[in-house]
Each structure stands twice: as structure tokens, then as C-alpha cells.
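Task 17 of the worksheet. Students: predict the tertiary structure of the chain below and write it out as C-alpha cells. Keep your answer in the requested format; marks are given for formatting as well as content.
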Amino acid sequence: MGIAQLDSLTGSLFAIGAIVILLAGSFFSFGILRFFQKRFFQGTVSLVLAIASFVALLLYVD
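Model answer:
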């Protein structure tokens, strides 16, 4: 029973951490896109952040 409780606690903490990381990443990406709005790196940064968000979502679901 203790292991199951620890497992559920770890899962909920991981879910909260993933949500916080995704929210912080979205705010950070908005700042970066605003900073690089008329620069060459805009497409690269947005592409990297989209891939990172997709990988984080896959890890969270899995």
C-alpha cells in the first residue's frame, strides 16, 4: 500500500511539474518571439519550442 501511495504521489507531482514547465515555456516563448519578432531566429526558436513541447507532451502521456 505504501508503494502504491508513493507511486500516485510521484505521478501527481510529475503532472504538476509538467504543467508548470509547459506554462513557463509558453510564457518564455512569447517573450522570445517578441524579442526576435523581426529577426532570423524567430522561425528557429518557434520550431525548437514546438518540438520541445511535443516531446514533453509525449513523455507526460507515456
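Marker's comment: Residues 49 and 55 are 10 Å apart (CA to CA). The chain has one domain: 2-61.
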